[in-house]
Amino acid sequence: MERRRFLGLGLAAAALVPASLSAVDFRKEKPDAFTAHNVADAIKGLYGDIKTIEGDISVKAPKIASNGGAIPVTIKSGLDLKSIAIFQDANPESAVVAFTIPATGIVNYMTKIKMKGPGEITVIAEAKDGKFYKTSQKLDVALGGCEG
Amino acid sequence: MGNMKIKAKVKGDTLKCKIQAKHIMLPYDAAKKKGIDANFITHIMGKVGETVVFEASTSQFISKDPIFKFEAKAKGIKKGDKLEMTWIDLSGKTVTEAKKIKGLK
After folding, report:
1. Of B30, B55, B92, the CB nearest to A24
2. What is the mean pLDDT of residues B25-41?
3. CA-to-CA distance for B60 and A19, rounded, in angstroms?
4. pLDDT of residue A1
5. Mean pLDDT by 10 residues, chain A (148 residues)
6. Does residue A119 form part of some domain?
7. CB contact at 8 A, A43 and A34
8. Nearest-CA residue of chain A relative to B46?
9. How far apart, in whole angstroms, are the C-alpha atoms of residue B8 and residue A129?
10. Is A77 part of a structural domain of the chain?
11. Quick check: is A74 in a domain?
12. According to the model, what pLDDT value does residue B2 have?
């Protein structure tokens, strides 16, 4: 597999694990982010100690999710971003997904996530200029869904 | 073939894609209850030729049979090009599938 491009994250893992698809596999480079049990630790694990500001990022999810096993979440931004990640506080671990935004990327992503119960989704975006933006939304879950 | 549903089209300047992979996405606590190993997609990437248009590091908390919708600038991409999606899961299995991009251009 050819390595694509380094984002210069600085804390990149030294070992090249053979099963890696690209240079930016956050699970390999920032494993603490994905094992953290609360949102603050997960954010620290992924981005370090950052100060976040409000900005042009939005998260949309149903206020009441009828199925906790498949909650549609849409995140959008008009900013020039490097990466954007979704966290939540209703599951045993807090990080859900981290998108690396490619050079030609447009930040308009939708995916479906699982939440064990009601909670808050937090989205952190890392901009190319080094700033970090945050937005969040609380939601209720009718039927908890970590069981799949 | 046949693990992923891939829909991609170019509309004006934007490449719009919707993909769904078949995967159990079994989190650790559910796996323990079932007595089997947890397994879920950990990384997924989309490329058109050499250009990466989508990349995500995922966790056990993405829903079963994960769906992703994403967009990218269509510069250099046109109808007929192939969108190649690749995912890898906790067990090390990798699946790559490609689909022609549709569009009005």
Report:
1. B55
2. 94
3. 18
4. 52
5. 45 37 76 94 95 95 94 96 96 95 95 95 96 96 63
6. yes
7. no
8. A102
9. 30
10. yes
11. yes
12. 76
Task: Collect all residues with Cβ–Cβ distance below 8 Å to A145 and sequence separation of at least 6.
Answer: A67, A68, A69, A70, A71, A114, A115, A116, B63
Cβ neighbours of residue B36 under 8 Å, at least 6 residues apart?
B26
Residue of A nearest to B85 (CA): A21
Neighbours of A6 (CB within 10 A): 9
CATH number, residue A136: 2.60.40.2470
* Polymer length in residues for chain A: 148
> Is residue A11 included in any domain, yes or no?
no
pLDDT at B43 over 60: yes
User: Is the CB of residue A117 less than 8 Å from the CB of residue A126?
Assistant: no
A115: nearest CA partner in chain B? B61
Is the distance from CB of A65 to CB of A140 less than 8 angstroms?
yes
DSSP-assigned states of every residue in B26-80 = B-HHHHHHHTS--B-EEEEEEEETTEEEEEEEE-TTBPSS-EEEEEEE-TT--TT
Q: How far is A104 from chain B (nearest CA, A)?
A: 5
The pLDDT assigned to A15 comes to: 36
Taking only residues 78 to 137 of chain A, the set having a beta carbon closer than 8 angstroms to any beta carbon of chain B reads: 88, 91-93, 95-100, 102-106, 108-115
Domain extent at residue A95: 26-141
Main-chain phi, psi angles of A30, to 5 degrees:
-130, 60
Q: Is the CB of B57 less than 8 angstroms away from the CB of A111?
A: no
Q: Is A24 on the interface with B (CB under 8 A)?
A: yes
Residue-range domains of chain B with CATH: 4-103 (2.60.40.10)
The pLDDT score that the predictor gives to residue B104 is 77
What's the rounded Cα separation, in Å, for the pair A122 and B54? 21
Count of structural domains, chain A: 1
